[in-house]
Amino acid sequence: MKRFASHFLFLPAYGYLKQYAVETEEGSVVRIFPLTEEIENVEWLPGAIVLLTQDELKELDTNSPLVNAPQNYSKTSAEFYYNSTRILVKFPQNLLMALPPSIEGRCQLLPVYFSNFDITTMLPAAGTRHRLLR
User: Across residues 73-91, what is the average pLDDT?
Assistant: First the structure.
């Protein structure tokens, strides 16, 4: 098992959690928990971690719009902007105080790390790369 923590943990269609960690096994999230103190064997990653399904990850990797992304975005959903060389993700402005009940215990979410995340604009910086955390 590996543990990763970041400034922000993004949950598409919900919002983001501040200073949360994910525990993974074989690349899938098995536990999400708040990072209230320094914990042994947790890798700190500056930026943001996004939790995606396998289908969303495939769409992200091909630079095409997400299958599940609605045409009219609500305040609690992600807005995805694409161009030919990179993907920019705009996070919703709502800060969640706790993990949504519908996410707890949900399996098969994949943690994707976005580096160069600007916490002022809540957007990845231009040229931001993403990688699956394993």
Answer: 36
The phi and psi torsions of 123 (rounded to 5 degrees) equal -135, 150
Q: Could you read off the pLDDT of 55-72 as tens digits, one per residue?
A: 777 766 664 444 344 443
Q: Is the pLDDT of residue 21 over 90?
A: yes
Q: What is the dihedral of CA 49, 116, 78, 34, to 10 degrees?
A: 30
**9 closest CA partner among 46, 50, 47:** 50
Neighbours of 102 (CB within 10 A): 10
For CA atoms 27, 33, 35, 39, give the dihedral sign: negative
Would 92 be classed as within a structural domain? yes
- pLDDT tens, residue by residue, 95-118: 888 888 877 666 688 998 887 777
Look at residue 130 and tell me if it is in a domain: no
Whether 131 is in a domain gets the answer no
Pairing state between β 42-52 and 2-11 = parallel
User: What's the one-letter identity of residue 28?
Assistant: S
The total domain count for the chain is: 1
